[in-house]
Write a structure and sequence with these properties.
The protein is an alpha+beta fold. The protein has 2 domains: 10-107, Phosphorylase Kinase, domain 1 (2-Layer Sandwich); 116-152 and 184-340, Aminoglycoside 3'-phosphotransferase, Chain: A, domain 2, CATH 3.90.1200. The protein is 45% helix and 15% strand. A 5-stranded antiparallel β-sheet has the order 1-2-3-5-4. A two-stranded antiparallel sheet has the order 6-9. A two-stranded antiparallel ribbon has the order 7-8. Helix 7 (264-278) packs parallel to helix 11 and helix 8 packs antiparallel against helix 11. The longest helix is centred in the middle third of the chain and has 21 residues, at 121-141. The chain starts with 15 loop residues before the first helix and ends with a helix.
Amino acid sequence: MVLPAPAPPPEALPPVGALLRRYPDAGEPISCVPVAQGLLNRGYRLATTRGAYFLKHHLDGDQEAITRQHRAVRQLQTLGVPVAPPVENARGETVAVIGGRCYALHPWIEGRHRDGGQLTAFASHRLGGLLGLVHVCLEQVMDARPAALAHDSADPADTSAVIDELIGLARGRARRNAFDELALHRLAERRALLERHAHRRPPPGAEPAAGWVHGDFHPLNVLYRGAEPAAIVDWDRLAVQPRAEEAVRAAAIFFVLPTGALELAKVRAYARAYRGASGADGAELAAAVHRVWWERLNDFWILRWRYLRNDRRADPQFAAVSALAVWWTREYEAVREAFAD
């Protein structure tokens, strides 16, 4: 997930002059302002004498993978998917390698991000249909047809060891604050839930239907212009995964309330449209709900960032994310019905 972050230091700013010489039609530079810093890239609003662009610095530097993503995005646009395809440079390339670093230029899309609380039931329905369209169109534009994926679910015994480690780190802080106390409470609570529901672990070797997915479909990667989706951005995690799981994970981000509950009426509208557009049936969505629920019960990525990496960018998400796992367990049947009915 792309997270807000401070501007990178001056030495990390992209070489705008050298870059724009690769794009003679883009004009002369006026300003370059950091707009976001993510796990996989850095982004800038680049203003020139010819207009505005989104400049992406791909930190992973895998030129072949970036080119493949760009090719997919350009083809998706021809199929009616709202995207912001990369600009070609003077040599017809979409990736500029300067000083060993990979950059790409995209048109600047005026718009805003909207979470589920800002979406009506109708807009939620449109969102589910849009993700279904993405999955269907990716199947058409990607070269290789994916095989079924083996799916090994989290082992609660391994999770218990992680809980022990995180409890030790939280308790060992010299000055514990309210976040640390909440973390300790949620860790103990989660251990009890896992002990109670260990028998519901998804069986090993299950093979959910796989397909090409966006890989990171959430509110910060969908731009709206008014009520209409203007562009789906950040395709860095384009990959083969269980498609229905992406639909469930996305809904669990878009439609989670600060209390940790899901807005099930909106989830139902979203899921119905997704099933209609993608061709997935209720059984596939129900199975995905179970796998993602189990994944959430065993996942502590925010606490890992805080206590193992000393990275607190995701701390504001912890209250809702940790509450969701508890609420989802209690309302399991209602959640499954909302996705599958």
